[in-house]
Each structure stands twice: as C-alpha cells, then as structure tokens.
Amino acid sequence: MDGASDDPSAVIDVVGLVKSFGRTKVLSELNLRVALGEVHGFLGPNGAGKTTTLRLLLGLLRADSGAMRVLGGDPWLDAVDLHRRLAYVPGDVALWPTLTGGEVIDLLGRLRGGLDPKRRASLIERFELDPTMKGRAYSKGNRQKVALVAALASDVELLLLDEPTSGLDPLMEAQFRDYINEVRGDGRTVLLSSHILGEVEALCDRVSIIRDGAVVESGTMAQLRHLARTTVSAEMASVPEGLADLPGVHDVVVQGQRITASVEAKGMAQLMAALGSGGVTAVTSQPPTLEELFLRHYRKAQP
Amino acid sequence: MTGELSGTAALMRLALRRDRLLVPAWIGFFAAMVWFSASATVGLYPTEAVRIEAANTINSTASVVALYGPIYDPTSLGALSMTKMTAVYTALLSILMIMLVVRHTRAEEEAGRLELVGAGVVGRAAPMAAALLVVGGASCVLGLLASAGLLAAGLPVVGSLIFGAGWAATGLCFSAVAAVAAQVTTGGRTANGLGFTVVAAAYAARAIGDLAEQGPGWLSWLSPIGWNQQIRAFAGDRWSVLVLPLAATAMLVPVAFTLRRRRDLGSGLLSDRRGPAAGALGSPLGLAWRLQRPLLLAWTAGSAVLAFMMGSIANNVAGLLDSPAMADMLQRLGGKQGLTDAFLAAVLGLVSTIIAAYGISAVGRLRSEESAGHAEAVLATAAARIGWATSHWLLALAGVAWLMLVAGAATGLGHALAVGDSSQILRITVAALARIPAAWVLVALVVAVWGVWPRATALVWGAYAAFIVVGEFGQLWGVPRWVMDFSPFSHSPLLPGPDAELTGMVWLTIIAGALLAGGSAAFRGRDLAA
Prior knowledge:
Number of helices of chain A: 10
Number of domains of chain B: 2
CATH topology of the largest domain in chain A: Rossmann fold
Oligomer: heterodimer
Mean pLDDT of chain A: 87
C-alpha cells in the first residue's frame, strides 16, 4: 500500500482512517489514494464502509483518527472551499417533495458556485430527464438522474459518485459511461463506488477493494489480475504426472485427455512447460475477471 | 371485502409496535390531567355556595366562555372541575388522534413504506383499517381511563362514565376526519394541516355558538367539540347526544374507504401539478424560506383571525361582571380599564404560547432535513454548516416575531373597533411584541438539543407541553415557584398593564442567544446524522 506517500499528484490521500459509530467500528485503518486524472473504482460488499468513507471525504462526518487530504485540503476544516471544487452524488438520493427536478439542479449548482447552463441542457437531454416534475413524483431512476445532472453540470475537479447508476436503465447506464469517459478526457478525477463490476471494469483505471472497513487490494486492473489465478484448460496427447505438485498450480481436474487447473501468475511458466512435454494439442486460458477477484475477497469474510 | 382487508391484523401489530411509547405516554398524560383537575377541584370548592359563585363568574365572563365553554349546572362539582377538559383538552386529543391516523396512513404512503407493505399479502383497505382500529382503540382506552380517573377522584358514577364516553366518541370522530383528510392530500404534512383546520373550525364554531345569547347558538351543534360539551357530563348527562359523533364517524369512515378504493397508491384527489424547469433558488436561506413559507402563511391567517376575535370580546369582559365580589376585584385591579388590560395581557400570553408551537415546528425542519438526507445534499456543496443551520433558525425566529406582530395588530384592531379608539392598535401591538423573546427561547431550545443530540429533538415538544401545564395549573396544584420559573412564558412582561417587568425580556433574549450559539457550535463539531 502506498497511501502514506505525500505525492502532490494525489487528489485523495487517506492514511489510517478510523471511524466508529458508538461501539460499531465502521472503518479501521483505511488507506486510499486516488491520483490526479484517474477514474478510481471503489468496490466492496454492502456495509463494508464505502459510503462512510465518501461522507468522511466530504467532511459530513468527522474522523476518529487518521490523515486525510482531498485536493490538498483537510476535508473537515476546509469543507466549504473544497466543495466548490468537487461534486457528489449520494447513494440514496432524496429530493424535496415540493421542488421540481430543475429547481433542485439549479439550487445545488448555485450552492456549489455556479453551473454551466450549456452542459446542464445537454445533460438533461442525454439523460432524457423531465425537469418540470415535482420531487415526490419522480421514480428512483429519475431521482438518480436529477442528482447526476446536478453533479455533472458543474465544472469541478473531482467527482465523488456513490453507486451513481443504481436504478438507471441500460441505455442511461451507457450514457453515463460515455460521459465519464469524456470527463476523463478533460483530466478530471473520479472516485466511483459501485457494485456493477462490468461498469468498473469498463471505466476505471485503478480499483480499490474495501472489506470490513479497510482497503484489502488496490491497483490497476492489470495488477489486480496478476494477483488472481488464470483458469487454464488443455487437450493432451498424454496426461503428465505430478501436475498438481507444481508450485502455484491448483484445482487440477483430469477428465480423460482433458485437464483444467487454476494457475497463479508465478506458476504459469512451469505449467506451460509440463503441458508442452505432454504433447498438448489445444489450450485455452481465461484471465480472471473482476468478479472472481471480488468474490474471492468477499468470501474471505465468511468463516 | 375479506381480500381488501387481509393483513389488517399484522399491520395493527406493526402500528402498536411503532407507537408502543408514544400512545401510552399521551393517553397517560390526558388521563392524568383529568384526574389532577378533578381531585384538585374537589378540595378547592368544598361547598355548593362556593361552586355556584365560581361557575357564575365563569359563565358571565365572555372570554372564559369562548375559551372553555359555559358550565351548564353551576351546582355541579364535576362540571366545574372539567371546565378546561371539556373543550380545550378535547381539541388537543382530537389533534393527537389526527396525527396518529395520518402517521400510519398518508405519512407511510408518502415515505414509500406502504409500497413495501402493500406488495405483501395486504388488502388495499388494510392499512387504513388497521390505523383506524388502533387509533379508535386508543380513543376507547383513553375514555375508559378518563372515567376511571374521575371515579377515583370521587365524582358521580354516571357523569364519570359519560365524560369518558364523550372523549372516546370525539376521538373516533376525528380519527375518521383524519382518514378522509389522508385520502385527499398527497403529503402527510398537508393531511395533518387539513385535519387541524377541521379541529380549529370546530373549536371556533362552538366558541361563537357558546357566546351567542340570541345569535347563532346553533353553531355549537355543527361542531364535534360542541357535541362533547352538549353531552353535559355531570350537568344533565345526556347520553343521546353521543349519537352525533358516532353517526359522524359512521358516515366518514365509508367515505374514506371509498376514496381509497378509487385512487392509486401514492396519489391524492388533487394530483401533482408540474413546476418550473429552472429554479431561482440559490442559497440556503432561499431554500429554507421556500420550505417554511407554506406553514407560515397558514399560521399568519389563523393567528390573525383568532387574535381579532379575542380582541373584539375583550371589552365585554368588564361589562359582564355584576357580582359584588367581582366588582370588588375590579376595583383592586384598577377599574374597568385594568380588568380589560388584564384580559388582553392574558390573551397575548396565550397567543404567544400558541405561536411558540409554530416556532418549534418551523425550526424542527433542521432535524427533518437532516434525517431525510436533504442536508447531506446541501452540505456537500459549498454551503457552510453554520450558514445552513442559521438560515433555518433565523427564519423560525423571524416567523415567530412576524406572527406576534400580526396577532398583536389583529387583537388591537379588534379591541379598537369595539371601543372606538384607534390608539389601542399600537398599544396592544407593542404589548404583543414584548412576548416574542419567550417564544424565541423555545426555538433556541430546539436548536440546542438538535445540535447536541439530533435524535432527541422531538423531546422539546415534551418540555413545551410541561411549560403549558405548569403555567396553566401550577398555581392550582401548588407547584413551587422555582419550578414554574422554568417556563420562559412566566417571564414575559404582563403588557398591557401598569406592573410590567421588562428585565425578563432581556434575560429571555440572552438565554435564547446562548442556546442558539451553543447548539450551532455543537452541530458544527458533530457528524451529520442519518
């Protein structure tokens, strides 16, 4: 973990963050680093502490201990100044029942220090949002769109998004992805908390996985894949002995001439050599998906 | 019909679970008030002669009749002891029953929880049926406890029973009113507001009817609160009048169920209109004003009407007194003007107590905005915490001051028209403004509690109720002076009048300021509560 670095290019730099609510410890020694201009995925099972982390980064909650820098400032002490430079989509969007969507977008934009009217109009069109409806009349997906438009219409350096596509239909999800890719092109930074692994895989440069209040894995997609096992299956002329004893090779299953195994990166070369000497006729290898990675970390939590 | 009502029993258990503290506390409060009033009066008026004089004084004082209703049998101890219970407390318990019904019907629907419940094996009519059964049951238990309290205080059996039956029937009647109100509007707040308006109208109709010697006395018979008076517990015991509230209930409940059957979940009779696609709101203060404005407008109209009525009858107070004892008291109070002033001061005191409830409810937005997640959205922008909190409490303070100004001017106008002296308007308005700091203390207390312990914010209503009870009954019960001094209302200057003590006002303002500063500072240092 390199969270302790004082790299000036880090937009979010969190070291040893601890937060308890009463006797419940929600975050224990959490480290998180998000570099300038990257789209950073923030993954974890329900109740792992994702929303609490985001609310701490916003200064809505006060940390028990640990060091936090957001855009070079202290999220608790410099909350107002920092909030001019960032925008937030909460996980649970609550709109005022008597205000229209358009009014909420304008209110939140002005409170942040202004929004770009052209961008507002284009976002409303892209997300096919009707801004004249009252807050209580919107569906979940439409409430989500109001919050997204309100956050994305501002010209800010950092976007904190807490499960931003929950409730959106696939078409709108695609619109969201396109937009985040444009944001990345502008050099803005995004911290994206999500459960939708496909979305994280498609959008994120780097990923942090949080479990039980601490980040257990952090890195680029390639680095994370490296940590996981590749599934290899091969058709053999003859099955060599002792495959299961090779270092880094697991779950070997032999069915007639067919072998499947899961392999760590370090064991790949030896396995390939053994397969070659056994007269391999066909081989397929499946890189680990984020889902497998995620599930592996998630399952560890169970006894 | 079985299909429409399936799940009612489960929903009743849910309602009882949610209300397991709230309802017993309120029922206990009302039953205790009945018992206290009855037993205190028994000791206070031991002989019939004393009772008759007291009852005649009440009956000949227009303002008291307007507030509490007349005493129909001056010789009756029970009727005298239930003076405040018959109309005022009946109105309060009606408000309670309305809030309970709305809490379990429209408020649940607005919050989306009824959708979760409605997707289970739950009939369309079940949530309302469950709410009505639970709240109706609460009314009946309250009636029984009230009867028990009266019996325990040693009052006649028949009168005690019919008094309890009257409360139960009135509670049922207003539960039915609330059930209809919950079908008409889409918001819980609006449904409550509609229900409270019916209570206020019922109370005002009976006040006018009771005052009218040859005028519209029939107005009392249009009002459920008037019916409760006409039952005449301890003063004739007219069981037949109980038919009126029960018949009204039997008519309103099917109306509510019919309206429910005809509409979709989440909709009201009045559908939501569209609004502007762009908004002009751009500051926490603008937002707070937008959110508090509807309530303030309703209160402005209500305060103006109530205060005008009170002001116009003030002059009759002195004129209606003809007993030698009252004439003697009149002399000591400084003649007719002195008595009128004392009455006006009492009216302004009452008005400031009522307007404090507006302040508590308006500043309560801080808590509801926070728990609904709206504060999170606002505070994630460049809006500062203190600025956001200040906009809400500042507007609540300003709202209280504005309402006192309106009420003072309306009282003054009513009085000025009655006596033909326009200088009264300014005099009484100034007197009303002197009552503002006491109401401000309640607003500030909400901010202090909310800042330190947000989930306890609603407890301030309990403190408010305690201040009212102590102010109203403290002397009757012999509560020590230092306990009564806890109530900010007991430190307001008694204006208009010659003996007004103004230092209390200064202290109240200082205390309010300290509570506001402390609450705001505590909020700045704490987590935003979900």
